[in-house]
Amino acid sequence: MVPYILKRIALMIPTLVGIMLITFIVTQFVPGGPVDQMIALLEGHGGAGGEVAASSSMYRGATGLDEERLAELKALYGFDQPPLQRFLAMMADYLRFDFGSSYYYQRDVVDLVISRMPVSMSLGLWTFFIVYGVCIPLGIAKAVRDGSSFDVISSTVILVGYAIPGFVLGIVLIVLFGGGSFWSVFPLRGLVSDDWAELGLVAKVLDYLWHMVLPIVSSAIGSLAVMTMLTKNSFLEEIGKNYVMTARAKGLDERTIMYKHVFRNAIIPIITGFPGYFIASFFTGSLLIETIFSLEGMGLLAYQSVLNRDYPVVLGTLYFFSIIGLVSRLLSDLSYVAVDPRIHFSRVDANG
């Protein structure tokens, strides 16, 4: 297994460099970069976000910026160097996890990402636990009762939920329970209330959970159907195999057959996606959910960074999340061995 892991790690390096190189090249040809935005700001045309120019004394709309000022702006953002030199310098900094400072927010990229992490972690982790905690037992129950009224009704409910986009459900929940047109039951902004720091420990936990109800429901509803049906179909496939009929012929009860024999085989395609989904839940965000519920998370940060051509944030977060994605894929492969001892990576290595 060790040679396989080392081989996968070695392949991660060119993959990561390739991802960063392609993205870096794309940013060189996208109009409206930081230099262009600053020129527009100085000339009184406003920034990418529609900001008004700073002051009339800096207005140069009639004549444009002189070459000296333009050179200063390029040097300020590092665009006075050849692209290859900038890319190599950037990758050297990224190896030390030095992502620089944001052009737009004027903050260190690492500090900026850390400040947005609580929202993404709250949405991701709660969604993760709800999806796996509900879908696996529900999928098993549906497989055992395949074709029953319970199976038909539950399938109808979860497929209707799957057909409703998360952001549409979020708007409906706001209208119904957020003081839109009916009941004002749940808060709509932020993770906690304004007086959260003054509350006791239990009150803080309850306040946090109360704020997260609507965003989590909106975020989780789409994944419930996929995971539930995957679990059901996986268990149905195993239930129909010969070893199950043999176990029944030996007189084993259904519970023992289901949870001692079927479970360990049927859970393999489900559990192998566990590491990647779990790690991704820490860092991914949902732009629409965060926008609807006024949550400043990673999804909104990524969108604003692309919109404002904030390249340190775009490239820095891409580098970090690419590493996370590659590692999670490796962990997903290794989880096969953990749940299925029949798999040996030594055979893969021997076959090339």
TrEMBL record:
It is a multi-pass membrane protein. The keyword Cell membrane applies. GO terms for cellular component: plasma membrane. It comes from the Bacteria. It holds the Pfam family BPD_transp_1. It is found in: Cell membrane. GO terms for biological process: microcin transport; transmembrane transport. InterPro entries: MetI-like (IPR000515), MetI-like_sf (IPR035906). Residues 117-332 form the ABC transmembrane type-1 domain. The chain crosses the membrane at residues 9-30, 123-144, 156-188, 208-231, 266-293, 313-332. Keywords: Cell membrane, Membrane, Transmembrane, Transmembrane helix, Transport. Belongs to the binding-protein-dependent transport system permease family. This is Microcin C transport system permease protein. It comes from Desulfofustis glycolicus DSM 9705.
